[in-house]
Amino acid sequence: MVDSSTPNEPVPSDSPCTRLAGHCDLLVIGEGLPAVTAAHEGRQLGLRVVLALVGSGSSASADQFLRLVGRRSLLDNHAVDPGETGGTADWSASFRQFGESIGRGSPPAIREDLAGSGIVLVETPPVFVGRDAIEVNGEKLRFRKAVLAIGRSASIEQGNSGEIESLLPEVFVGLNRPPQRLAILGCGPRACIWAQALRRFGSEVLLISPERSLLPDENPLAGAVVERQLALEGVQMFLGGTAVAVGQTGGQRMVVVDQEGQREKHFVDRVFREVATAPDLGRLQLDKAKVAWDARGIKVNRRLRTTNRRVFAGGGVCGEAFDRPEAALVMARLCVHNAFHCFRKRVPRTVIPRYVWTDPEVAEVGITPAEAAAQQIEIDTYRAEISEVATSRLAGRAEGFLVIYTRHGTARILGGVAVAECATELIGTVGLLMAQRISLDALAESAACLPSRLEVLALMGDYYRRNRPRSRWQIMGTKLHGRWKRLWRSVSA
Asked: So what's the pLDDT on residue 324?
């Protein structure tokens, strides 16, 4: 608890309403790192901050598993036979690491992080009782501004329907070894990551996608690289296929796959599918705070303000498109800024990267060619192959590319997509260039450490210097200069 007379002195959090005289400057309701980040941002402004935890959803757990554990422990594993003890040991170690990573977001870990910062931690979920007030343990607490940094969750019971189970880490935690044969219904980043990870643990994986592409929302060239890699690793894919029937046959489960009118029967041990995520908002009683929301999330404007002028929201609670850690962190900081500053900023949606943690990684930032065409923006495309980087060739990881889109005739970066072992680092650098409005030709002037995978950025700058098109203004200037020279010669003659 923070007393108004001594804002820098941490106080007990047993009764925040009483110790703060029933009033605080900033109320943060959320979970995990985004909520803690918002609370720290408010504290740096000298505000009396209360952080109320609402619990961690399974969707956040899945993201932590696929990013922290999956990339380091699963995807770097060589495929092993399910019967071997090595595969079982790796399996147990990976999920133990998953449990430890989730524990870092638990209330004790958050309490330790906030120790001495002067932020009041409330571990009892609050409920709104008015436009500027909540109730905690029967006590009323008023606030000047509030930030909702809540993620999305998917329950195990929601996805379990007889023979089909939810594709969530919690389902696998209790298993001593990975399933020998399994089927995954669906497409998208999580389906691809799970299929590759489980295959590298030695499982026989059937990936049944209703779309013709495994990554329909990503760049088609990037999706093709991921599909080719999964095929090389032995994942059996049915693109444009549908599981028309799933049934129990003895100790196995039978999946009937319909692909372009042809039906095949496959016998597996388990059948999984990706379940939809949704924010758990009903218990907050947002209607009493006059905050508009529906099943998809809270309605906010481009400055993250809700229908209640005192309440801002960011992260997965604003929609499934923002249910990513990097987006949640940016939006949490932006919520606090807009709540207490006169000059409010808009959501920099084009500068928030999008990642697919397969091997190779897929990363994208900014505008896509389809979005540019819809907005009638002319773009130039520059592409460099990862095979041109000596470090990648020596490591045997030469497949992939980096594509950067610029506004036609200029060096201003509008977006990019990378497919490589280090795609996240590459696209993070491109996003920084976009945010700081650094032109593409500046890459050619910077000295990259050689050998390094970032060498591809220097190559991209060289490509731009050699192949950049002339803009309309340059063409017009050349024509005017030619006319002026002809006029001068005629006058001199």
From this structure: 80
Query: Tokens at residue 113, please?
Result: 């992080």
CATH number at residue 32: 3.50.50.60
Which neighbouring-strand residues pair with 140?
Answer: 135
Q: What is the number of structural domains in the chain?
A: 3
- Shared domain for 176 and 305, answered yes or no, is no
* Global model pTM greater than 0.85: no
Question: 265 with 283, same domain?
Answer: no
192: domain range?
156-273
For β-strands 413-420 and 401-407, DSSP reports them as: antiparallel
CB burial readout 210-244, b (16+ within 10 A) else e:
eeebbbeebbeebbebbbebbeeeebbbbbebebe
Give 299's contacts (C-beta < 8 A, 6+ positions apart): 292, 293, 306, 307
Which of 322, 350, 378 delimits the end of a domain? 350
Do 304 and 230 fall into the same domain? Answer: no
Q: Examine the domain organization and report whether 137 and 205 are in the same domain.
A: no
> What's the CATH code of the domain at 384?
3.30.390.30
The verdict on 148 and 21 lying in the same domain is yes
232 in the same domain as 312: no
23 φ, ψ (degrees, to nearest 5) = -150, 140
- For 433, residues 6+ apart whose C-beta sits below 8 A from its C-beta are 413, 440, 442, 443
C-alpha 122/C-alpha 50 separation (Å) is 7
329-364 b/e (C-beta count within 10 Å ≥ 16 → b): bbbbbbbbbbbbeeebeebeeebbbbbbbbbbbbbb
Torsion of CA 328, 334, 336, 340, to 10 degrees: -170
Condensed to tens digits (0 to 9), the pLDDT of residues 201-251 reads 888 999 988 888 889 888 888 989 999 999 998 999 999 888 888 888 777
Which has the closest alpha carbon to 255: 190, 202, 182?
A: 182
Cα separations in angstroms, 122 against 17, 119, 280, 406: 10, 10, 18, 47
The predicted model gives 128-153 an average pLDDT of 88
Give the residue among 94, 268, 89 at the shortest CA–CA distance from 181.
Answer: 268
Task: Give residue 347's pLDDT band: very low, low, confident or very high (50, 70, 90).
Answer: confident
Q: Which amino acid is at 316?
A: G
Looking at the fold, whether 125 and 192 belong to one and the same domain comes out as no
